[in-house]
Fold:
Amino acid sequence: MTQTVDLAGGTALPLIGFGTWQLRPKAAYESVRAALEIGYRHVDTATLYKNEADVGRAVKDSGLDREQVFITTKLRPQDARHARRTLESSLRLLDTDYVDLWLIHWPTGRDEFISTWQELLAAKDAGLARNVGVSNYSPAQIDMLTDATGRQPSVNQIPWSPAQHDPALLDEHRRRGIVVEGYSGLKNTDLRDPVITEIAQRYGATPAQVVLRWHLEHGIVILPRSSRREHIAANFDLDGIALTKEDVAAIDSLA
Structure:
């Protein structure tokens, strides 16, 4: 069973998602198909990635019911003034009636800052997005959205890795009941660091698996991306790595 975290509205978000950034159409299709066969039930794409159609086709061809797969897409700030049209285009490309999560990819300019969030809330109310959130926002920026509308994002997707570990920032999100999704966790980590390689050897795991497991120990959603089936499988196979409190603290200290 895939481990999940509950979003504010009650939706179960799988803690392990499959990222599709920089995956070209053919690779995106094949990688998402492989990920779904391996057991992933959460796929992350964006208008920016230009692979929504391939992601949608992979989900369709997987034979899984739509309800079984959590799909996220994201709105580019430059599309803010026609947000609903952009989402409708994403839904057409993904070949679905709704997305499970729609994020503002990074903060818009000041003029569209609140109105864009209102567009996401309207899409949620219309049933086009089950949940809405943000990416690359600070807690202060999130508070501006909440203060203006009375409704806060359910997710903030931000860069996270051992080197960027920030317990205070994590706590800011926890206090608000906002789930943190971490991206580029492997890209921003030195996988040859002796702290990580020693732990990996002890568990018979790869350094990448240790870093991903560390994210999960902190309750951070992960979005590993690969076009190689063996890596896609290894990134999902984290149950057997039972990090101790001391292991987690040692990795925390790399920040």
Summary: Residues 25-38 form the longest helix (14 residues). The mean pLDDT is 96. The longest strand covers residues 70-75. The chain has ten helices and ten strands.
